[in-house]
Amino acid sequence: MVHQLSLVSSIPHSKYIQTVSTLQALTGLANPQDIATYTLITKPHNIFKPKFEPGKVNQIEQYYMKCTTTWSDEASTSFDISAPILKGGDNDDVLADRLFSGDEPVERNWTLQVSDIPIAGKNQLCSAQTIYESTLVHTHTTVKEGPSAPTAPTAPTEPTSEIPQAPTEPEPATEENPASTEVVDLDAMDVDAIEVDHVDLTGEDDKKDTTEVKEEDKKETQVPEVATKNAKKDSFLQFIEDLGYDLINQYWVKGIRFFHKDIVIEIFKVFVRDDTTESSHPGRIKLKLLDESNNFQIKAYINIPKSTDVELINQGNKDLLKIQEFLKNLFELQIPDRMFMDSRVKQ
């Protein structure tokens, strides 16, 4: 949890070079840090609808959640952010790779973030809001399971008409007979909960010792995973759905970041999916600017560890006001509208 103080602004594309040169001289960073992130916006499955009663105040709030990871494909490093992105221009074809489109394991760091509405007040010097976030590591994997049969009750010693005879044993899987191996869609979290051995319904396997059966089960579950077309992939979207959230939107951010004392200054553009035109590459998504005027967005912020540390908050406000005064002839840093930063789910 952090308490964030922030000011925002925007500049036209024509002022980008001048702004970067000024911030390089101010911060002493000749090579600012690159920003390339991909963010999912999620909403809770079940919306809480309180029962309104006289004299009773609803204290339960639900929030949209942001899931952010790095945007690390060819598109994030190939195009130049300093060049304007115009429709029909040379720099217009921005293509982002689809996540988890390959069969190779991909490990990504995801940051789940929920933010409260900024503090209200007429005398606020900066926008102040509390942010809760957690970072996890998710690995895209491909899971394969061998043939399985439903669990049957203990068969009697003499077969009856109600119990079908055991089917003919299938031929072993070979290069000439690849169809003998069946692939079942399976999520990685359910591997240990499903038995993968054959069950003989004739009762002939009842004579085997129980410990031998368990050893065979253990050996079968340790078969190395093989990537196949019918195998199910452990997607991060499935994790979000199990967590109780639905995906409602997504966006990409590309820009640069400066550091001045405790202040972080970010200059970036926001991209969204372009559904008006089809991508020439089936494995990629065509992107377009959210703000088609090619303006850059600027955010200057300070993160305070605790919202109760009044001394650090006051010092942070003073530092942001100093940078605001210093850069007022270049761009004007302002307090954003707190209603646009309200991430609460409307009842």
From TrEMBL:
Q: Where is the composition biased (Acidic residues)?
A: 184-194
Spell out the Basic and acidic residues composition-biased ranges. Answer: 195-222
Sorted alphabetically, the Gene Ontology cellular component annotations on this record are: core mediator complex; mediator complex
UniProt lists compositionally biased (Low complexity) regions at 147-168
Q: Which InterPro entries match?
A: Mediator_Med18
Q: Segment Disordered: which positions?
A: 141-222
Named from the GO MF annotations, one term is: transcription coregulator activity
The family database entries (PANTHER family) matched by this protein are listed as: MEDIATOR OF RNA POLYMERASE II TRANSCRIPTION SUBUNIT 18 (PTHR13321:SF2), MEDIATOR OF RNA POLYMERASE II TRANSCRIPTION, SUBUNIT 18 (PTHR13321)
Q: Which family does it belong to?
A: Belongs to the Mediator complex subunit 18 family.
Question: What is the official name of this protein in its record?
Answer: Mediator of RNA polymerase II transcription subunit 18
Q: Which organism is it from?
A: Suhomyces tanzawaensis NRRL Y-17324
Gene behind the chain: MED18
